[in-house]
Amino acid sequence: MDFKKIGEDVIKRAAGYGADEAEAVIENVKEFNVNVRKGEVETLQKSVSKGLGLRVYINKALGFSYTSDLSPESLDETVKKTVDLAKITESKPWQGLPEFGPQPLADLDIYDAEMAAVPDDKKIAIAKEVERIAMAQDKRITNTEGGSFSNTEREAGLFNSKGISYVLRETSCGFSAYVIAGEGDNMQGGGWSSYKRFYKELAPVEDVAKKAAQRAVEMLGAKPVETKKVPVIFDRYAAPSFWMGILFALNGDAVFRKTTFMTEMLEKPIASPLITLNDDATKPRFIGSVPFDGEGNVTRKITVVDKGVLQTFYYDSQTARKAGVKVHTMARRYGYRGGPSAGFLCIIVENGKDDPAALFKDVKEGLLVTGMRGAGTDTTTGAFSVGCSGFWIVDGAKAFPVDGVTLGGTTLEILKAIDMVANDLDLRGGLNSPSFRVAEITVGGKKA
Amino acid sequence: MDILRLNHLMDRRGFLKKGMQTGALVVSYPLWKHFAGKETDALGATEAVGQSALDKDTLRKLLEACLSRGGEFAEVYYERTVTNSLSLDEDKITTATRGLDMGVGFRVIQGEKTGYAFSDDLDFARLKEAAETAALIASGAVQQKPATFTPLSPPSYYLVKVSPDTIASKEKAALLIKGNAVARAFDKRITQVGVGFYDINKRILIANSEGLYAEDTQTLSRFGVNCAALEGTQRSMGYESKSGSFGFEHYDLALAEEFGRKAAEMAIRLLPAEDAPAGEFPIVVAAGYGGIFFHEAIGHSLEGDGIRKKTSCFWDRLGQSIASPVVTLADDGTYKGGWGSVNVDDEGCVGKDTVLIDKGTCAAFIEDKLNAKLMKAKQTGNGRRQSYQFYPIPRMTNTYLHAGESKPEDIIKSIDKGLFISKIGGGNVSPTTGRFVFSVTEGYMIEGGKVAQPLKGIMLMGSGQDVLKNISMVGNDLLIIGGGTCGKDGQSKPVGFGNPTLKVDKITIGGKKA
User: What CA–CA distances, in Å, run from A350 to A346, B71, B274?
Assistant: First the structure.
């Protein structure tokens, strides 16, 4: 499929039908996905899907549509109808395409040319192997949700009437296992995975299998504890959930509307000086990296929180124009079915100085959080409340597994009470953090 | 809500698909964010395009291709979906969106194995190629021939006289403008108002090798108002919405006015909210939104896939007491106008009303075709899929607790110190442990048998098994609502839910105050 030809033609057609500005995204995704359970293939799925999304502006009023039908007749019809939609909506002075035009793009090396050559049988074998090894780790593992392997090859194009004409090819692949330990009312599931852009960079099957098994077994017998205020350590793999809720509160448009508790916090301390947080989708070969964002802006490393002080909110080009701020805009896009919206691209909280073991050292009684159910932060009020599981710490060591407890507090107070940050960052996805410790949080459990 | 790419740590539900999200794939939004509408002239969408592309002869040929490697069962699923949305924000109609999704999915089953492939290109050669890819799950010679088609004509549970797809956007816009004006005029502390109208018009055709042939037109619509209020540094949100398989005749200016007022009232009511307490409390859950709880905390654990694989905490509990005797829970795909109702499910089984828990006893599970067959159980009309890009899995339709006998006011009076939960925002559960969390968007203290001050930051936490046993009173005021989008195995699907006012003797509340 010639993306450039289709994309540039659609932009021209939009102008022909009366659009002042137009932007098209085209996507073609090849996917392979296998799930095995108890050593047998359970589902095998192969697919190719494609589609186009189009936004147009007439006198700064928006029309948007998408279609999975890329035949010339359907595309012409889509363009015509999108232009009609822009006549239905009302204009706002800040609406429209970004000011920037084409910019030089970095080569982030995110396409694995060798992946296509990996035979399906090999992928199926990995899915079977990771499940088998995980099951064999411990007698207490009684059941399995299975092993899986999947890979995706995606081609995406972004075209607009300001001359942007980008085509991107990217790959990703990965495998996972999820097993169940225990029986009856005492069952615990545990899973682990490895996802990379390059097939050859995947973690060893044994490592993933062992981690999945360990996560199930170590939670057996988990119970709630009584309500009390204690130091809380967030494990590096649970920490991303914690940050997610906080990041939503930094939406520049919500600040403009004064609907977030972060509204007044720009250039003020929002967290302990131990915290530095960047948006950085520029690391070569990394699964969280992309050369351009959902509006065609080049990606850059942006410091969001510097030693605890909030440096910026996040905006796409329209919300930045609306709020009258000059920033490097960041827009996310979820496939071709929707328009761009402001959002961080790849968050990395910087490593601290402490060895992970040091975080436990003077904790007489506390909680290690290894799983969070939800993000915790209410972006409107700043109240923090979340369900979690993990381990009770007694005299600096893990004592027993805990589940069914909640953490409650105020987001800003919790952020400022971070008193240790570990040096154990492990980059895995779009949100990455080292382990850290909060001096005190209310852990809600059994009795009032 | 935009979701940043998370580390791959979630439960297996949603684990696989999410794991693959790299650049930009589909993540579910709150319903309004991207909703839009359509002008009949601009978007005349109900044309029967594609329908002729798959006549019975073509379907038979495709099923033969599916069975070419010896599969036991084959199915073709055709879909053409038009989505419209219109939204108002900051006093103006800002977004009008239209979307078209069209394609065909092929499923081949051999024993416990499923092969799946789809094509969004309706050219016969491409369709055949996809059918042959799905066929590869089996390996051998042809075992089955597709049976002669017998068209199905199920009753209709949809309340659609006037398709929203045929309504000019001006009429939809009038509702948005009314809702906005009423909400803004309600109180000057209302600082933001968003209003949306959304409709989805899905035409499906299912044909399988057993001779099943079913067609359905599924229309869902939704109208809602969101408000934000601000006073000093106190912030709050309010919302009101209606969603179901409703035609446009179910929406008018009086409704828009009512919703604008109710959304604003809620935001203003919650402005003085205080921090929620932490610990174990009795709670009263108001009629309606508590159904989310039954969906998440119990319904998912009763789905046939987890039962068959013995990964659900309820797998061996059929016929046993799993809940207090006041609990009768149903999954009802036949509820008229329900957001989750189906004339036929996505594998052609007619919609059914299934009692899952009968006066406390586990009575049935939620089954699709594959799990029903492997478990030697009956199909319950719960084989559902997000689109032609997915194979069907056991999913709920409208899940609700049957009404009891208590008066709602007596239930509140029975609590000296506890919480009144009015609206629940959302939550999640591990079907393995039954452990859940829910965030509460509107809740109050109960003191001395009376609803007292509003609270913020309430989180409910516990296990489905425990809560089922701790339900001690059920009201006579069942309310079934819609608007939910449930995610499972990377597929999102509209689901309805409901409950009468009820009392849970103790549940863990996560709040700030120890």
Answer: 13, 53, 34
